[in-house]
Amino acid sequence: MKAEGPAMTAPLPAPDPLAPPLCDAQGRRMTYLRLSVTDRCNFRCTYCSPASWGGKKDLLDAGEFERIVSVFARMGIRRVRLTGGEPLARPDILDIAKRIAAVPGVEHLAITTNASRLESLAGPLRDAGVTQLNLSLDTLSAEVFRRISKQGDFEAVLRGIDAAAGAGFQSLKLNVVVMRGINDAEVPELVTYAHARGITPRFIELMPFGQGTPVPTAELLERLAASGSVLTEEPQESAASPTSGPARYWRMDSGRVGFISPLTQNFCGGCNRVRVASNGDLRSCLGGRAQAPLHQLIRGGATDAELAVAVRRALGEKPEGHRFTEAGNGATLLPMMGIGG
Ligand code: SAM
Ligand code: SF4
């Protein structure tokens, strides 16, 4: 007869912190990493750079970015965006792009840039494996450009955008931050400018990081309709797709047009994004605070598994959404330049 007693079960192996999926506290699956490669910039846009923001020298090197991306890719990240500051201000940007594009698991490598250095860099970036560029341009007037971007070189930006349009990227977008009384009247012209170059324009509601008054997306849609455009809303991409982002798109005869509406249509519900700031701190939310000092951990000799544990712990605290619209919240945030938008 068999002896009665407590059933013997082997202890379960500890879960591998590097194994996908990478989920946040709300159960949202993270597939998209935004990496700020510098907090320095050759422009000083009024909405981005507070006067006191001096910037420091770049902290992480190309090998450290590659290491961070490879840990995230093992955890399920499929799309990476390099931003800043101005990512093309880094002299080693081609090396960074080449290394990240070659990380197994990375399917899309994008860069957000002010376009001022693209005349010479568009082709080499494409050859390095960059698949998508987001180009920032808020106006077609040299005078308004000077008011917004201060030290920026307008002609170099226009030449850079034309170089990007001819370089064969999979996707090009034009980011326009809309400010009342500054550039809001230019929306139809900016749509025409972008579509003429095969670029998708996207109009962004100004977030409270600097100066200026935002214009709600609904008002821009009404104005475009009033100027004779027929707009049909596209179905939203599933949040599970690594290519899905915060923009909503409409179709017009001449092409697509996107709107990013952090203030009037909170985009946090479908969030699939994790951010690493230019100092190497993981930020689980644009409106949140530093949570995992990845750079310090790397320099301290952390293993990939230890980095993955720190990432999971930080994402365990990821809030449901930013709180830009709450009184006083904008003032306490890290400047946009350090997080990269
Ligand atoms: N220097 C690059 C550029 O300008 O494209 C990349 C960094 S920039 C911080 C990334 C994006 O954030 C840009 O498209 C910029 O227009 C946008 N941005 C900056 N400050 C913003 C704000 N206060 N509200 C909304 N978008 C902002
Ligand atoms: Fe520089 Fe881009 Fe910020 Fe303008 S928006 S100051 S170009 S980082």
Automatic annotation (TrEMBL):
<dbReference type="InterPro" id="IPR050105">
    <property type="entry name" value="MoCo_biosynth_MoaA/MoaC"/>
</dbReference>
<feature type="binding site">
    <location>
        <position position="271"/>
    </location>
    <ligand>
        <name>[4Fe-4S] cluster 2</name>
    </ligand>
</feature>
<dbReference type="GO" id="GO:0061798">
    <property type="term" value="F:GTP 3',8'-cyclase activity"/>
</dbReference>
<feature type="binding site">
    <location>
        <position position="173"/>
    </location>
    <ligand>
        <name>GTP</name>
    </ligand>
</feature>
<feature type="binding site">
    <location>
        <position position="48"/>
    </location>
    <ligand>
        <name>[4Fe-4S] cluster 1</name>
    </ligand>
</feature>
<dbReference type="InterPro" id="IPR006638">
    <property type="entry name" value="Elp3/MiaA/NifB-like_rSAM"/>
</dbReference>
<keyword id="KW-0479">Metal-binding</keyword>
<comment type="pathway">
    <text>Cofactor biosynthesis; molybdopterin biosynthesis.</text>
</comment>
<keyword id="KW-0411">Iron-sulfur</keyword>
<dbReference type="GO" id="GO:0006777">
    <property type="term" value="P:Mo-molybdopterin cofactor biosynthetic process"/>
</dbReference>
<dbReference type="InterPro" id="IPR040064">
    <property type="entry name" value="MoaA-like"/>
</dbReference>
<dbReference type="InterPro" id="IPR000385">
    <property type="entry name" value="MoaA_NifB_PqqE_Fe-S-bd_CS"/>
</dbReference>
<comment type="subunit">
    <text>Monomer and homodimer.</text>
</comment>
<dbReference type="InterPro" id="IPR010505">
    <property type="entry name" value="MoaA_twitch"/>
</dbReference>
<keyword id="KW-0501">Molybdenum cofactor biosynthesis</keyword>
<feature type="binding site">
    <location>
        <position position="136"/>
    </location>
    <ligand>
        <name>S-adenosyl-L-methionine</name>
    </ligand>
</feature>
<dbReference type="InterPro" id="IPR013483">
    <property type="entry name" value="MoaA"/>
</dbReference>
<dbReference type="GO" id="GO:0051539">
    <property type="term" value="F:4 iron, 4 sulfur cluster binding"/>
</dbReference>
<feature type="binding site">
    <location>
        <position position="34"/>
    </location>
    <ligand>
        <name>GTP</name>
    </ligand>
</feature>
<feature type="binding site">
    <location>
        <position position="268"/>
    </location>
    <ligand>
        <name>[4Fe-4S] cluster 2</name>
    </ligand>
</feature>
<feature type="domain" description="Radical SAM core">
    <location>
        <begin position="25"/>
        <end position="243"/>
    </location>
</feature>
<feature type="binding site">
    <location>
        <position position="41"/>
    </location>
    <ligand>
        <name>[4Fe-4S] cluster 1</name>
    </ligand>
</feature>
<dbReference type="Pfam" id="PF06463">
    <property type="entry name" value="Mob_synth_C"/>
</dbReference>
<comment type="similarity">
    <text>Belongs to the radical SAM superfamily. MoaA family.</text>
</comment>
<keyword id="KW-0456">Lyase</keyword>
<feature type="binding site">
    <location>
        <position position="85"/>
    </location>
    <ligand>
        <name>S-adenosyl-L-methionine</name>
    </ligand>
</feature>
<feature type="binding site">
    <location>
        <position position="285"/>
    </location>
    <ligand>
        <name>[4Fe-4S] cluster 2</name>
    </ligand>
</feature>
<dbReference type="Pfam" id="PF04055">
    <property type="entry name" value="Radical_SAM"/>
</dbReference>
<dbReference type="GO" id="GO:0005525">
    <property type="term" value="F:GTP binding"/>
</dbReference>
<feature type="binding site">
    <location>
        <position position="207"/>
    </location>
    <ligand>
        <name>S-adenosyl-L-methionine</name>
    </ligand>
</feature>
<comment type="function">
    <text>Catalyzes the cyclization of GTP to (8S)-3',8-cyclo-7,8-dihydroguanosine 5'-triphosphate.</text>
</comment>
<protein>
    <recommendedName>
        <fullName>GTP 3',8-cyclase</fullName>
        <ecNumber>4.1.99.22</ecNumber>
    </recommendedName>
</protein>
<feature type="binding site">
    <location>
        <position position="45"/>
    </location>
    <ligand>
        <name>[4Fe-4S] cluster 1</name>
    </ligand>
</feature>
<feature type="binding site">
    <location>
        <position position="81"/>
    </location>
    <ligand>
        <name>GTP</name>
    </ligand>
</feature>
<dbReference type="InterPro" id="IPR007197">
    <property type="entry name" value="rSAM"/>
</dbReference>
<keyword id="KW-0547">Nucleotide-binding</keyword>
<feature type="binding site">
    <location>
        <begin position="273"/>
        <end position="275"/>
    </location>
    <ligand>
        <name>GTP</name>
    </ligand>
</feature>
<dbReference type="GO" id="GO:0046872">
    <property type="term" value="F:metal ion binding"/>
</dbReference>
<dbReference type="InterPro" id="IPR013785">
    <property type="entry name" value="Aldolase_TIM"/>
</dbReference>
<dbReference type="InterPro" id="IPR058240">
    <property type="entry name" value="rSAM_sf"/>
</dbReference>
<keyword id="KW-0408">Iron</keyword>
<dbReference type="GO" id="GO:0061799">
    <property type="term" value="F:cyclic pyranopterin monophosphate synthase activity"/>
</dbReference>
